[in-house]
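task queued by scheduler; priority normal; single chain, no ligands, no partner chains; default sampling; output format set to structure tokens
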Amino acid sequence: MSELIVFDTSIVVDQIRGNRHLVRMLKVDGNVRNSSVVLAELWRRVTNAVDRKVVEGMERNHATLTPTAKNWIESGQVLGRLRADRGFEAGKLRDLHFDVLIALTARAHGAKLITSNRDDFELIRTYREFKLEVW
């Protein structure tokens, strides 16, 4: 069975805005899956018909992985540890919450998460191991 691949919001936005990852995205070896969290973040950013078509195409062409109740609870535990260990304020924890959910959902499905957001995802990986590739 092929490896599952989840693209983080940062990869999709980089591609839409600057065509930065097309060749790599087309050459990825695995079955691409959406994260419902990534789709929500993308819909929040849709500002024109092109953006809308990209997100609609993603929904149509790839199955979607969604955080479970366990993922949500575990995300709170990870964020609580980040607050305790790093002293992060509520705003930073809010910024990280969706990234933690994306990572935990990918982990639950054994999927590799591909991102261009190195700092946040490598930080999260110090609390929960998951497959990560940074572009």
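post-processing summary
- The CA atoms of residues 72 and 129 lie 16 Å apart.
- The longest strand covers residues 31-35.
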